[in-house]
Protoheme IX farnesyltransferase (Acidimangrovimonas pyrenivorans), 310 residues
Amino acid sequence: MTDIRAYEQSGDAGFGDYVALLKPRVMSLVVFTALVGLLAAPVSVHPFIAFTAVLFIALGGGASGALNMWWDSDIDRVMRRTRGRPIPSGRIEPGEALGLGLGLSVISVTMLGLASNWLAAALLAFTIFFYVVIYSMWLKRTTPQNIVIGGAAGAFPPMIGWAVATGGVSIESVLMFALIFMWTPPHFWSLALFMKSDYADAKVPMLTVTHGRKSTRTHILVYTLLLAPVALAAGFTSIGGPVYLAASLVLNAIFLTGAWRIWRRDEATAEADKYAVEKKVFGFSLVYLFLHFSAFLVEAVLHGYGLGGW
């Protein structure tokens, strides 16, 4: 039987390795929020333009992922969560990832501009730049505010989708951006609480490393409190409505309850139950964002937005 370690060191990559290089889980969130931003806009979009726009936004998200993996391959080798990725495991060379990321960046931005408009393309280009240069190369390794500021990179897709449909930026797209931006810190910090030594081993100044777990728990509660009014505010714009407001009230009540439970815990209790509460809150944070944007989509259907071309 072939030695798995020998295969991993051979540099022979399969199709799945190149897919993994594009961070498909992150890409799925990019695609979904961009699509919602496009369909929530109060204008009709031709189905071909919508399809191609979302495709090129997805490619741009994949480009960001490949460039991030290229840059972070050194710390990915250290962290247990990431050491199996294509580059640290030896299946893909760093230069391949760099070339793929740069190529997809140029293709995605150029084709999005040609397929829709150049504002949307410029926003996509800035998103890639922000994620790779501002977050990955600068903030991630220098400040515990890495997630706070860097969260903007993941918040741009609905703005890009909105720009594809309308050719502009509005309070609605800004609020969709703000929802993801404010959601990102409590989402990632709840993960950091039960990742234990990974970030410390990789010398990444995550808040849990620089300020300790007690401070991180306080930050999660504060940011969740700040998130709730941002989420609810979107319900009073053209992308909101009774369905969205009802869903947001319930989701924020649950998220705040979870953040409160995290804040009240000490490390001895968390260690004893293997960070069960923190893991539940992290898992719910994913549901929280998905259901908010699903509610935007329901309201778009009820309003008849973005469907005229369909």
Summary: Confidence is low (pLDDT under 50) at residues 1-10. The longest helix spans residues 276-303. Residues 76 and 167 are 38 Å apart (CA to CA). Residues 16-303 form a domain with the Farnesyl Diphosphate Synthase fold (CATH 1.10.600).
